[in-house]
# Entry
Amino acid sequence: MRKIIFLLSLTLVSWGAFAQHSHSKMTTKDKVQPSVKVEHSHAASAIIENYLALKDALVREDSEKSAVLGKKMLSIFPKFDASGVSKQHKKEVAKIIKDATQQAKYIADNNGNIANQREHFEFLTKGVKDLVIIAGSDRPLYQAYCPMYNNNKGGAWLSTTKEISNPYFGSKMLKCGSVQQELLVK
# Structure
């Protein structure tokens, strides 16, 4: 009888520990996603180059440089050559360019407010990633993710290396995050 009570107690303790360590709060954003292969293309090269420079300015907490780069992106997005994009993706690309241009404008208009620039950078990142998946890239990119950004809602960014340099926290939490997905060039 003592063995049964002991085993029952051990089972209940184990079950309680398991219940407290629930994985139900994990989202797909928290998990590593499979690599995506994108076409080799130079169509988005200028966008990618300026996006990466903007990311680096946010890492350095340089709001003024971020505003300058946001303004530069305002002139680059409309020049995107969608001629190589399939007919079925033309409308989607036009919407991505329109939305990303708006985010770049917000970044440009918020010199001195790095928190606001970072907020719009999060949306810009989604647009640039979607554009790369459709239009291709001239280089491999890594999507990194910080689960602590935006009151633990998380935020992603693109980088050319697997090394983490967090644009959402800068020097406060420079290495917070991990590579979530690779965008590899075919």
Remarks:
- The mean pLDDT is 87.
